[in-house]
Amino acid sequence: MKEILIYGPIGQATTAADVVRQFQDAEDQEVLLRIHSEGGSVLDGYAILSAIKRHKKKVYAHIEGMAFSMAAVISLELRDTLSMAKDAWIMFHEVRNYAGGTEEDL
What we know:
The chain has helices at about 15-25, 40-55, 70-75; strands at about 1-5, 30-35, 60-70, 80-85, 90. It is of the alpha/beta class. Helix 1 packs parallel to helix 2 (about 40-55) and helix 2 packs parallel to helix 3. It is globular and about 45 Å long.
């Protein structure tokens, strides 16, 4: 089984290009996606989700500490194979952008 990490901010510490490449390298293997991320780029996150959906073998997800924001979206996409550490957190929030504030503020 291949382990792929989503650790740190999505789009920075964890890029879509890196995760997609790892999924390509694991095309004939099951994958354990280990998650500890505060979320990040929605665009990178959806590219990662596309790679997960294209993967032909089973993908398991385990939240090791936190899955916030976009990391939570990715986690819940794998809800049938999702596990969490006893003290792990999952969190969503209102949509935000880099200009500052919520959708309602803008």
